[in-house]
Design a protein that fits this description.
Layout (H helix, E strand, L loop, with lengths): L1 H6 L3 H18 L5 H40 L5 E5 L5 E2 L3 H7 L4 E16 L2 E10 L3 H4 L6 E4 L10 E4 L1 H7 L9 E6 L14 E8 L1 E3 L4 H4 L2 E5 H8 L5 E2 L1 E6 L5 H12 L3 E5 H4 L1 H26 L1 H12 L1 H9 L4 H37 L19 H24 L1 H4 L1
Parallel strand pairs: 4-10, 6-8
Antiparallel strand pairs: 1-12, 1-13, 2-11, 3-4, 3-7, 3-12, 5-9, 6-10, 7-8
Helix pairs in contact: 2-14, 3-11, 3-12, 3-14, 3-15, 11-15, 12-14, 12-15, 14-15
Amino acid sequence: MSNQKNNEPPKKYREIIFSLRIAWRYLISKKSHNAINIISGISSAGVAVGTMALVVVLSVFNGFETLISDMFSSFDPDLRITLTQGKTFDIRNAEFEKIRKSPLVAVFTEVVEENALLRFKEKQMPAIIKGVTDNFRQSTHIDSIMYDGKFELFDGAFERAVPGIGVAGTLGLGAQFIDPLYIYAPKRTSKINLLRPENSFNQAGTFVSGIFSVSQLQYDDRYVLVSIGLARELFEYDSTIVSSVEIKLTPVADKAKAQQSIREILGEKYQVKNRYEQQESFFKIMKIEKWITFLILCFILLIASFNIIGSLSMLIIEKKQDIETLRCLGANNSLIKRIFLLEGWMISVVGSFAGIIIGTVICLVQEHFGLLKLGTGYVVDAYPVVTNFSDIILVFFTVLIMGMLAALYPVRYIKKAL
């Protein structure tokens, strides 16, 4: 007898199992008043719709974030090294030589970036001139975002330029135009000549070889790519001076460890930023938009969950005789409250499971087949969707917590109701 008692679960767990059985029985059994079944069904359906909306919206935000990240990755390097304070620095030292020869580094690109004035025929505009070394093609996916022409910075005879599509549109440029694109930059090493102001500028003529399109205004409307030799000549920098160093890591390199390793080599004088940190403000705004939308939908879901209050209140009144019977059998108020609390929670569980399944199926279908189209004139044809398991888990537990909170109110006053 003692062994049998030892094998039995503790009293607390037996009460929970007992409460679950009765709550499940109440959930699936037919009620004497059909309105209770209808209200319970509406409660569960409302939770399901809200859950489905949460899954779909979070997945769409993930899709847009991934899409924009891929766009930036075509132009941004894995790592970018800049000064913490200041504009330019000399890479002729042991630290940068060690980084250049590191087995983690696949491509080491020198960059000179400055503001300048562009002129094409009678049109002018300010722009950012980005001078890069010949291996820039290997460090980014620039070839995949060429809108017109090809990526070429020097053809053996003439300097070439590759402007963004916004710059090209403003100036009326096209790939392989025979008219030169002139670049003007103020001389750093001499004073302004008030009598002949035009002599205070360095000038260079280039020919457009291609036009790139990142589909991001900060690049398309502002940047022009040229050879680093031309940029250094325009801005009067020595052959070892750069404004940044862009690094492409090897495929087997751990990006986080590589970033930390380079930081340790260079010290606090330099910033080493990954792709997310290079566009930190942009991605932070996207994250804020995502979670604000999540909170708004959670509030709507909480309102939908209030249907559980009506369903439970009516069920408690209907089961008045059952409650009296349980009390006669020794059930206390805590056990009775737990039964109806679990009943309300189960309504949320059924709704959350249904919503998650429907929402996940919708997202997977859209992700693989792109049935819902955006229309013409967009970067992609269909709404981008990325379904993350972590988001589904978050939604599931959020719905369960809300269902529990909604069930607490009628159960708390169960004694008064009877």
